[in-house]
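Margin note from the TA: students keep mixing up input and output lines. Inputs are the sequences; the output is the structure of the whole complex. Example:
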Amino acid sequence: MTNHWIDIKNSDCILIMGSNAAENHPISFKYVIEAQQKGATLISVDPRFTRTSSKADMYSPLRSGTDIAFLGGMIKYIIDNQLYHQEYVANYTNATFIVGKKFKFKDGLFSGFDAKNRKYDKSQWAFDMDKNGVPKMDRSLKNSRSVLQLLKKHFNRYNTKLVSQITGTPEKDLKKIYKTYAETGKVGKAGTIMYAMGWTQHTVGTQNIRTMAIIQLLLGNMGMAGGGVNALRGESNVQGSTDHCLLWHIWPGYLKTPRSSNTSLAAYNKKWTPASKDPLSANWWQNYPKYSVSMLKSFFGDNADASNDFGYSWLPKVDDGKAYSWLDLFDVMYNGEIKGFFAWGQNPACSGANANKNRQAMAKLDWMVNTNLFENETGAFWKGPGVDPTKVKTEVFFLPACVSVEKDGSITNSGRWMQWRYQGPKPLGNSLPDGQIIMNLGNKIKELYAAQPGAFKEPIANLKWDYLSNGEYNAHMVAKEINGYFLKDVTVRGKDFKAGTLVPSFAFLLADGSTSSGNWLYCNSYTEKGNMAARRGQKDAPNNIGLYPEFSWCWPVNRRIIYNRASVDPKGQPWDNANWVIRWTGKKWEGDVPDGGWPPLLSADGKPNPKSKHAFIMRKHGHAQIFGPGRADGPFPEHYEPLECPVERNYMSKQRMNPTAPVYGGTADDWATCDPRYPYVATTYRVVEHWQTGVMTRYQPYLLEMQPQMFVEMSKELARLKDIRNGERVMVSSLRGKVEATALVTARFKPFKLGKLTVHQVGLPWHFGWIKPLSGMEESANLLTPNTGDANTRIPETKAFMVNVTKA
Amino acid sequence: MSMSFLVDTTLCTACRGCQVACKQWHDLPAEETTNRGSYQNPADLSFDTYKLVRMKEEVIDGQMRWLFFPDQCRHCLEPPCQDTAGDESAIFTDASSGAVIYTANTKGFDAAEITESCPYNIPRKGPDGTLAKCDMCLDRVQNGLQPACVKTCPTGAMNFGTREAMLSLGNRHLAEAKKKFPKAQLLDPGDVRVIFLTGFDPNYYHENAIASGGSFDVTRQVALRRMLRPLTGLISQLL
């Protein structure tokens, strides 16, 4: 979330699309309802009428996988009716930038497409630069090559008639929702978006969110209280694990995983440190080397110094142009190229797209270590349905982990709040905290390398691994390491610091090896003042908008609403005086921690202030990106159909699906679009009663009582067509698998009218698996889902695919 | 002190935290259920289920509505069940809160008669004939805590406090609800301690949302029992 949970109460209009917050983030509704009671409008857009929809002031359906068409229509509406926040757009976004002549868009493809390799030459999307190397801009927004004019042209095709034909949303609903949401473009109004996996898990997932980000920028909603782009994270610590590099393509704090072509630390830092020639651009990432070196010092301690590139060569590199995402890992595992697998706190036999392939892939392993609270379908894959245990060679080890309340540590919630948790009861039986398990494992591996040195022992031998006190894992020691230490007596920014003290914030990190920080983004979380995440102060900030700056800690540097420099006009005065986030007193900023302490762009007398910086400090050029030339699939979003869809062609262009989305070609990767055998659109989701693959909830009798069985929701019309009665067991099948489920026939699902075509959609939860309930008849919806994914992130497309439904 | 609930169904998201919290606090067993083609489960209140979020799908004035009704005992000001039982060792009203409490002594009664006397069809019979229902979490309330269902509610749908406070809160919520739902109403506020607020005609939510027959008319049987009560009390003392 750019904002945070409590801040939802400050919104004037809440769009819940691509998520079902009432069911999957039930506590969020405390703030949604508070906003409604203050007059906010709640809009719910979902293929199915949900518990979220039940509380909405407006509801409208859309076919799964058509969000860009829906939102693209809104962009057109906003521009055609000039409802955008002119001053905000002109000053804070790259709508003013002039795009080079090479950029073109034709027949659904942007210029620079390489069909053979399914990728774009992004250099064709570059901005025109002036003689100083700064992007050319037209603050009047009239230049025909300005981003705003190109945006207008791009989305001009997205008229409500065509959008409705794609999405199945009635035209009158489109117009009503566009009008209502666009009203937040008025100065002083703020609209927010609450989205989750309903937007990300598509071949166009990143661009779904880009489309909304463009809307939020046009309407001046970024940085505002009650605004922002808010990703509702699906687990209590997904935000934290992402910040700390759960994913393959990043190091902690969103540093880049080095490529094999980054042959030295200097080459790596040069490659990933952006340079701006604009004196008004803070270009915060220019500090990149301070963060990468401090991280290496944190990893390797005294063993890392300038003479050995701070141990840079000891860390693994990824091959240029190669992906190592979830889908790719299971693909190579399926092909027998992986020997061992740690399944740590996860259940890919049920949670991963095309779960049959994942289950088969596990049988190709020599060994698997399953670390979890309970045995799950992953650790037990060798005795699962249709598997002969005598034919499986994989040796499986189970390491019992204790539950969250049995250990110390922090979690970082969706709103970026790092919150410390104390240990309650001691771990049960022989279960251990994850930290203890990984420490023991690391120590054992270090012992083995010391006893019988193998090839390339340096990464293991040199690893700083000292987070035990009295033999026990100490979460505080890790938290301090993540924050970082001064390693020598140094003077930084005019202040003296002693070796061994904690670094007060990332502004004091250095690139010469005299500081450490496991994750620069968390530098400021555990300082000489104490454990900031453990704070529980109840006092609000002076603006009284629910920031509660003394409760827990929030990255970066306790800034509760990021991009907040855009919540004020160029003189530093709030667009919204009632719910102001920061404001310039003439001498300093007050309110939230500002996005950089520089003075406003204009002085009180209206003169440009050369000491100022542009509002979006994390962008190279200081402006938010309406035009995003870094994305794999285009600088503007474009509607493409999912890998599997119910229409013969994309009504928007000749290009049916995202041309850069990964498609796998093995025998286990079957897919088919517009196949009469699989005529119905399907989507997957969660219910409030269960969590993820259900490993923690299927064992809870009270939760199983409420949601005891796998079900498939369908319209009354489809049930009539297939002669299916409500409550009877049916079979749902795709090219990749089949799942038995109880038919839940409901008026909350309606067939979609796509022009003259009628399309039915069904939906299934993915909480079940054969281990529990004991009948073994309740299975995962991911046996059906396809293993394709987003062109940028490669998150699987489990939210839109094609199935058949028949009587069981 | 006379206590009451306000249950504002216009704010309920059917997260069913209340349903689980109730079972957890009372240590009630989960029921073996199946999906019957509905999210609502169990199907009905039972000896082991005192709180149940009822779910109804209705199209009202051309608009899809999913109506949630977190059903429970209303703790009537003049409980017909208590009158029907006529034995305060089995069913009595706790003076400190107004909670209508069932004891193990309900075992000897004609369960059907007690349940039928309830205008909201709440009490349920156990295997041995004992009756059970919501007890207002009397143990919590007497220790200054909110009932478990109220404590767990994230949206402000479930509220608890003095009767005076809840009546006043009810009127405020009603005025607010009427802005969106012109037919919003408080259900039987003068007769019960668990006051529901619905956005639409209560019959859409549940057949027993309001008192059956629409009033608290005393049945002939209950009237007779009331007349006889001093006498039965006297007899029991003699015995």
